[in-house]
Amino acid sequence: MDMATNTASTATTGAGNGPHGPGDPTLTGLAFADSGFDGQFLRVLDTIPSGGADVGEAFITARRIPEGDRDAWNLEWNALGERILAEAEESLTAGHRVSAREGFLRAATYFRISGVFMYAPPLDPRFVTANARQRDAFRRAAELMDHPFQQVAIPYEGTELDGYLATPSGPGPFPTVILVGGYDGTMEETYVAGGVAALRRGYAVLMMDGPGQGAALVERDLHFRHDWEAVVTAQVDWLVARPEVDATRIAALGRSWGGHLAPRAATAEHRLAAVIADAPQYAPGANAALLLPEDHRDDLDTGEADDDLNAAVRAGMEQSPGLAFSVGRGMLTHGCATPVEYLRDLTQFTLVGIADRIDCPVLLTVGQNDPRVVDAQSFFDALTAPKTMIEFTNAEGAGEHDEAGAAVLFSQRAFDWLDTVIGR
């Protein structure tokens, strides 16, 4: 397939695995019956190939957590982070730099995941601590990296946002990947969720908490915006002035919610050479009303009966931990005081009518078992730029959200595609 031409259009399923279908086993029920807990646990395991976790300590920690107990979730993952951090400090004191770096990196994952179920206003002090501890542990690891690694500040709308620029060893300039994280991720997580794989292949990587993410949310009270090109354009402006960066080969890799934000940026930021949207979401705002009881869904657009709508959503949140997590997280990251305010803000997030403005090659990657990618085919059909879509299947052990549990396979396919379209 010729992915570099202006007419390229390819959709593929997972290769080399024979037939697959709804009867294939899935990578679920690993440690918890609760799908939210189990999904976050798999998210931890997914960082193992990049050094972000280890199998035994992660499983044993999970087995100490009672089903559905979010306080215990925070307590146990935080305790693991503290233990691994202390051991890393002992290794560093004794001069064992590699062991120390590996420990600090794992501790960062465990601290971060300890606060993941506390995304809701007002900020829980434990959530604030989790964010700070994961950042500090990560920076301890960064000081010991074998490749160049810098803490940087990116100008953004009259202020600056913190970030990291990591480059391979050796002379540049390097093709560069902007890592766009998701709803409840941090820039530190993007290092083990794409950054390491990119660096191994000779790419520089820029990691930054945008509005609604990580420190930009917790410490600066900045919230998600639908026009994400404002964020990526600031990043590209900064990158093109860097001698380490090949300004003609800057790509964006968005994962989870970043699978909507990165292509949204590409509708207006035309200096991007390629975009990868993992868990591509074409019109996620169109699903906002689905979080309401069916008999209230038509009321979201009217602006009427908001007290009744909010009461209905809050009643649902009391009955469903999953709904409580989704709405609470959305209220916090979007800066909304009520559930209905969040749902209305979410309706702005759509690529309908603007997807054809993307003019660089696009890769959409979807997990067979991921409910977030229900409109991926519509997104693919709306694109007029060179485009490829790859389905990762349950039969491959890669069918979950963001292909969690199949990080090596995802990196192989995504970066092989990127190597091709930007001429590596």
Automatic annotation (TrEMBL):
Residues 1-28 are annotated as: Disordered. The keyword Cell inner membrane does not apply. Residues 1-14 have a biased composition (Low complexity). Keywords: Hydrolase. InterPro entries: AB_hydrolase_fold (IPR029058), FrsA-like (IPR010520), FrsA_esterase (IPR050261). GO terms for molecular function: hydrolase activity. It holds the Pfam family FrsA-like. Belongs to the AB hydrolase superfamily. This is Dipeptidyl aminopeptidase.
